[in-house]
């Protein structure tokens, strides 16, 4: 029985600055239009373009218009499924989600999108969309409706397909290269093609692509955040009035252009790292990590939310826009991360192997932090590093991570730092959760002392030489104590480079 890929199932949840499905569809359609001839669209709406009117007259007379040279920009809206069959014998319902695939006629590459899961629903309303650019004619758009199962493998409920041929589409009794096609596809049983098992409603928007290029997914960047109150309880997060503080959460961002940016770049687990060997050479440990991954990334347990991230401001708003440190693993389908820290259970729940679901290789892995930046348009700066002892990513591939985020979140300010760069320790000190309790106190004292020195520097010259000398001696003694404490803090693993991930 086929196993579906790991993709975004989640329950929708309202959140600040999060775009709803319907609104995100409008945003995506507007973006698609603006990237492919917004001036022509404006002229059509105003009806003031003489050239367009002449073109419409020609089309009405039946003259064929040559197909676009660079294919089409296509936005597919997944509306709803109806009359689905029952798959769960205990409640007489099903937990359906849809996997859409767009395959060019030359089979040059398959582009895939998966909807969220609707639990106990035979008539789910999805209202989701995805965008493709440079789509050639005769591209096959296929759909599979799956039933989500917890204890067993997911089952295929029905299949349908449709071939995108704009030349054969007629709207308003004339041919057009721009339009909307409502579809109501009949779903058929996976093993009994003659058996009908419900319908799937889609809406396909298309228009000519202006620039040459290969077919690729434009987005949107969807995310799933899974909350685990049980893990939060173990970590001592007992503020029951706030979900964000009482729970430990993991994130899954479905970034676009991952294959285009990383190509064949892969990083296997580091066989020279003893702790990694203890994980990957022990089947029982591997199974434990997979169980931990399934529990933390579960969307049917605890609380979960999903949404759309359109730019840098959305990204930082989703992550709280605070001084926080996260571990991450980049997989072929998604960017997975969680907040890390020096606390034992927090560190245990943010291992790179856990995010990778015990996979022996990842595209990249490391840590990132979010710091305030007044010069950045979004008000924050993203710091990406390759600090992972488990996979030991090469520093020459760090620019790929920067390029990936810049492609997905317009306007984002990214900085990459190698794990051996001394600057990384300074960034650790700016994020309290990344340090141990003692190291955090020392860092706070250093910041406080630096502030006092700056505030008293202006009046220091007015004091007498005797007092100045006395203060200088005290300052020297304090600096010695400070250096001593700083060296002891640097010796702590939590305050320095991360070699335990």
From TrEMBL:
Highest taxon, organism lineage: Eukaryota
Q: Region Disordered: start and end of each range?
A: 31-69, 440-501
Q: Which organism is it from?
A: Chlorella vulgaris
Q: Which UniProt keywords apply?
A: Calcium, Metal-binding
Q: Which CDD domains match?
A: C2
Q: Does the keyword Calcium apply?
A: yes
Record-annotated membrane-spanning stretches:
none
Ranges annotated as biased composition (Acidic residues): 47-64
Q: Which residues form the signal peptide?
A: none
The C2 domain, residue ranges: 55-179
Gene3D superfamilies associated with the record = C2 domain (2.60.40.150)
Which SMART domains does the record cross-reference, listed alphabetically? Answer: C2 (SM00239)
Instruction: Please give the GO cellular component terms listed in this UniProt entry.
Output: membrane
- Name the chain's protein: C2 domain-containing protein
One MF annotation (Gene Ontology) recorded for this entry:
calcium ion binding
């Amino acid at each position: 029985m086929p196993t579906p890929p790991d993709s975004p199932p989640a329950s929708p949840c309202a959140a600040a600055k999060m775009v709803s499905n319907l609104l995100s569809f409008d945003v995506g359609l507007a973006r698609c239009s603006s990237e492919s001839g917004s001036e022509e669209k404006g002229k059509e709406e105003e009806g003031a373009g003489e050239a367009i009117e002449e073109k419409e007259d020609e089309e009405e007379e039946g003259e064929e218009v040559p197909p676009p040279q660079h294919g089409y920009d296509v936005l597919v809206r997944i509306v709803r499924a109806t009359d689905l069959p029952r798959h769960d014998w205990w409640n007489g319902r099903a937990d359906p989600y849809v996997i859409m695939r767009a395959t060019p006629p030359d089979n040059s590459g398959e582009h895939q999108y998966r909807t969220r899961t609707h639990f106990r629903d035979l008539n789910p309303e999805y209202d989701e969309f995805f965008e493709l650019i440079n789509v050639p004619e005769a591209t096959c758009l296929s759909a599979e409706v799956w039933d989500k199962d917890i204890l067993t493998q997911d089952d295929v409920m029905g299949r349908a397909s449709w071939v995108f041929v704009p030349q054969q589409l007629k709207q308003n009794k004339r041919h057009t290269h721009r339009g909307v096609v409502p579809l109501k596809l009949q779903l058929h049983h996976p093993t009994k093609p003659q058996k009908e098992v419900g319908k799937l409603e889609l809406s396909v928007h298309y228009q000519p692509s202006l620039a040459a290029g290969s077919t690729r997914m434009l987005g949107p960047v969807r995310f799933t955040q899974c909350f685990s109150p049980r893990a939060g309880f173990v970590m001592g997060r007992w503020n029951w009035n706030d979900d964000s503080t009482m729970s430990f959460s993991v994130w899954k961002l479905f970034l676009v252009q991952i294959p285009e940016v990383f190509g064949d770049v892969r990083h296997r687990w580091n066989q020279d790292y003893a702790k990694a060997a203890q994980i990957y050479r022990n089947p029982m440990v591997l199974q434990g990590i997979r169980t931990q991954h399934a529990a933390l990334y579960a969307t049917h347990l605890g609380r979960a939310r999903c949404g759309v991230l359109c730019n840098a401001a959305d990204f930082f708003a989703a992550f709280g826009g605070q001084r926080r440190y996260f571990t991450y693993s980049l997989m072929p389908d998604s960017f997975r991360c969680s907040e890390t820290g020096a606390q034992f259970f927090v560190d245990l729940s943010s291992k790179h192997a856990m995010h990778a679901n015990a996979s022996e290789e990842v595209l990249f892995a490391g840590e990132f932090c979010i710091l305030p930046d007044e010069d950045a348009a979004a008000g924050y700066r993203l710091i990406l590093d390759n600090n992972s002892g488990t996979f030991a990513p090469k520093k020459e591939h760090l620019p790929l991570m920067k390029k990936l985020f810049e492609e997905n979140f317009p306007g984002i300010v990214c900085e990459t730092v190698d794990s051996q760069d001394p600057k990384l320790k300074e960034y650790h000190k700016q994020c309290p959760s990344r340090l141990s309790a003692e190291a955090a106190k020392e860092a706070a004292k250093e910041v406080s002392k630096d502030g006092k020195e700056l505030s008293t520097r202006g009046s220091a010259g007015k004091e007498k030489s005797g007092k100045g000398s006395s203060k200088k001696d005290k300052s020297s003694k304090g600096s010695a104590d400070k250096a001593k404490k700083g060296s002891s803090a640097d010796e702590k693993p939590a305050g320095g480079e991360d070699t335990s991930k």
